[in-house]
Amino acid sequence: MKKLILVVDDSPTIRSSISFCLGNAGYKVSEAKDGKDALEKLANMKEEGQIPSLIVTDVNMPQMDGITFIEMVKKGDFRFLPILVLTTESEESMIEKGRAAGASGWLVKPFRPEQFLWTIKKLVWTVNE
Question: Nearest-CA neighbor of 103 among 113, 116, 94?
Answer without folding.
Answer: 94
